[in-house]
């Protein structure tokens, strides 16, 4: 392979690798943001979770605190 073809091939491989790396980082960033959002929106507040541990009376009290 001539030096110019090897150089062009290397440049092409490097650019494809850079695009792929950027794409992977973007997908990971979106996934992490979604995970944080899902965890925040589905996790009960501490008083709700504490009510479950305290039994039925505690659950009713914490349910009232959490849900008005």
Automatic annotation (TrEMBL):
Keywords of the record: Membrane, Transmembrane, Transmembrane helix
Keyword match Transmembrane helix: yes
Residue stretches spanning the membrane: 12-31
Source organism superkingdom: Eukaryota
Protein name: Uncharacterized protein
Native species: Schizophyllum amplum
């Amino acid at each position: 392979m001539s030096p110019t073809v090897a150089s062009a091939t290397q440049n092409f491989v490097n650019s494809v690798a850079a695009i792929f790396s950027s794409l992977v980082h973007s997908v990971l960033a979106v996934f992490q943001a979604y995970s944080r959002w899902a965890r925040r929106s589905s996790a009960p507040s501490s008083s709700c979770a504490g009510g479950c541990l305290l039994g039925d009376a505690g659950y009713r009290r914490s349910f009232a605190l959490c849900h008005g």
